[in-house]
Specification:
Elements (H helix, E strand, L loop, with lengths): L2 E5 L2 E4 L4 E8 L7 E7 L5 E8 L4 E3 L7 E6 L4 E6 L8 E9 L4 E4 L3 E6 L1
Parallel strand pairs: 2-11
Antiparallel strand pairs: 1-3, 3-8, 4-5, 4-9, 5-6, 7-8, 9-10, 9-11
Length: about 120
């Protein structure tokens, strides 16, 4: 069973930074894409950023220019650098991995990010 383990969440002040990481384990197939989503209190889970195996990244408009997604293909790990944080970035952040070879779509358990004003 593919597992995703996120880390790096926590509390930050507005304007501050955090770095999230997500490590994928127990897959023998290449990871096609990795992404981050978030769910704010009382809201649906929304797309944040995504990066494919060739390094192509895309972002939600709300985080463009502030967040950066990267990945280390050798370690099956993705990172999300959160800069210029705003209180509205407060949410549980979930990592996602797509393994096209087995039509697999996997989620991590989530990590809390709280931004104080």
């Amino acid at each position: 069973q593919v597992q995703l383990v996120e880390s790096g969440g926590g509390l930050a002040q507005a304007g501050g930074s955090l770095n999230l990481s997500c490590e994928v384990s127990r897959t023998i197939y290449p990871i096609t894409a990795m992404g981050w989503y978030r769910r704010a209190p009382g809201q649906e889970r929304d797309f944040v950023a995504r990066i494919t195996d060739d390094g192509t990244a895309n972002y939600a408009d709300s985080v463009k220019g502030r967040f950066t997604i990267t990945r280390d293909n050798n370690k099956d790990t993705a990172f999300l650098q959160l800069n210029s944080l705003k209180p509205e970035d407060t949410a549980v952040y979930y990592c996602n991995a797509v393994v096209a070879a087995v039509s697999g779509y996997y989620w991590g358990q989530g990590t809390q990010v709280t931004v104080s004003s």
